[in-house]
Amino acid sequence: MKDTAFMAEALDLAKRGCGRVSPNPMVGAVLVKNGRVVGRGWHRRFGGPHAEAEAITDAGRRAQGSALYVTMEPCCFHGKTPACTSAVQLAGIRRVVAATLDPNPRVKGRGLRFLRGCGIETSVGLLAGAARQLNEGYFTSLRLHRPFVVLKVAATLDGMVADETGHSKWITGPRARALGSELRLCADAIVVGVNTVIADNPRLTRRVKTPGQYVRVILDSSLATPLNSRLFGEPGLILVFTASQDAAKAERFWAKNVEVKRVGKGADGLLSWSEILGELHRRQVQTVLIEGGATVASSALEADIVDKMYVFQSPKMLGPGKSFTRGISPRPHGKPIELTRVEHRCLGADFLTEGYVHRTH
């Protein structure tokens, strides 16, 4: 029971790296001696000391003979920081409990094997599910060579994300909007369509400034985004995906330090998600948050690229409007788009459904 409590604390520490460490994973570590925590650490920023080194520094001499609870297997290679396995060995730690192996091919079990070779007791698997969920982007990026895709939708009871004119402010209340803003903190990129930019003129910024990478992405087939849009006045990388071959239009975006990337079109006639995700993966983007309107949301669902959904539903009905499912082809009754591991929450008058898109492949 105590082992579980110590690992749970390590997981809580790891969460503090949200929005700060990507493309590294969020990792937390706790050192325990004689049943008491003597050192704590977490990976605070990309390029900075890893969680194990932080915990060892925090413990000082008390690290000798202690047990290390860490949310991911210690690394065994020298990158921007020294190998954590060497730090563990030199500190005299006698036991290492890891929640998961590191899926990075440069590690993948080698870290624990090295420690066992040094006579250090090791085990893996404690709270593994929670540890993998914490770093869904990291695991997906290494396993599928694409980012983990989260779709956020704010809709009415009748499934509308905007009225017939495209107006969508504000469908949900302040508590739902606040939680929606929090989702941006751990995303490496936020994606919207040109229609959202034109209708809402958003900044697409994070509520809290963090040092991690954060790319604002616009899907704009014909480069119709107004150049006086508010998001162009905010610092940070902006990437526009387009099918347009108009070099003069593209040059106007480049003049505003906005990158333009041309991609092909998918089966639905909209921009190719496989090319978009491939380019974002190349840029080490591991978690993508789609906040687009009806066209972008339904296109992502139709392309089967969504891994997780947050559907915020308000107790309102608009009647005819823009539905986030309008671009999805008809599904047989026995083969709907279905969410698993579903959680429900009430946020004031609004209702949140959170879950993972079920896949059989």
From TrEMBL:
What Pfam families does UniProt report for this protein, alphabetically? dCMP_cyt_deam_1, RibD_C
**Alphabetic keyword roster:** Hydrolase, Metal-binding, Multifunctional enzyme, NADP, Oxidoreductase, Riboflavin biosynthesis, Zinc
List, separated by semicolons, the cofactors it needs: Zn(2+)
Q: What is its EC number?
A: 3.5.4.26, 1.1.1.193
Known SUPFAM superfamilies for this protein? Cytidine deaminase-like (SSF53927), Dihydrofolate reductase-like (SSF53597)
Q: In which pathway does it act?
A: Cofactor biosynthesis; riboflavin biosynthesis; 5-amino-6-(D-ribitylamino)uracil from GTP: step 3/4; Cofactor biosynthesis; riboflavin biosynthesis; 5-amino-6-(D-ribitylamino)uracil from GTP: step 2/4
Please indicate if the UniProt record lists Zinc as a keyword. yes
Q: Where does substrate bind?
A: 168, 184, 204, 207, 291
Q: Binding of NADP(+): at which residues?
A: 154, 170, 196, 200, 221, 293-299
Q: Name one GO biological process term.
A: riboflavin biosynthetic process
Superkingdom to which the source organism belongs: Bacteria
Q: Which reaction does it catalyse?
A: 5-amino-6-(5-phospho-D-ribitylamino)uracil + NADP(+) = 5-amino-6-(5-phospho-D-ribosylamino)uracil + NADPH + H(+); 2,5-diamino-6-hydroxy-4-(5-phosphoribosylamino)-pyrimidine + H2O + H(+) = 5-amino-6-(5-phospho-D-ribosylamino)uracil + NH4(+)
- Please share the entry's free-text remark on the cofactor: Binds 1 zinc ion.
All copies of the CMP/dCMP-type deaminase domain together span 1-114
Active-site residues, Swiss-Prot/TrEMBL: 52 (proton donor)
- Asked if the keyword Cell inner membrane belongs to this entry, the reply reads no
Q: Which Gene3D superfamilies match?
A: Cytidine Deaminase, domain 2, Dihydrofolate Reductase, subunit A
List of residues binding Zn(2+): 50, 75, 84
What is a GO molecular function of this protein? 5-amino-6-(5-phosphoribosylamino)uracil reductase activity
Q: Which InterPro entries match?
A: APOBEC/CMP_deaminase_Zn-bd, CMP_dCMP_dom, Cytidine_deaminase-like, DHFR-like_dom_sf, Eubact_RibD, RibDG_C, Riboflavin_Biosynth_HTPR
Q: What does this protein do?
A: Converts 2,5-diamino-6-(ribosylamino)-4(3h)-pyrimidinone 5'-phosphate into 5-amino-6-(ribosylamino)-2,4(1h,3h)-pyrimidinedione 5'-phosphate.
Tell me which family the UniProt entry assigns to this protein: In the C-terminal section; belongs to the HTP reductase family.
Give the protein's recorded name: Riboflavin biosynthesis protein RibD
Q: What's the encoding gene here?
A: ribD
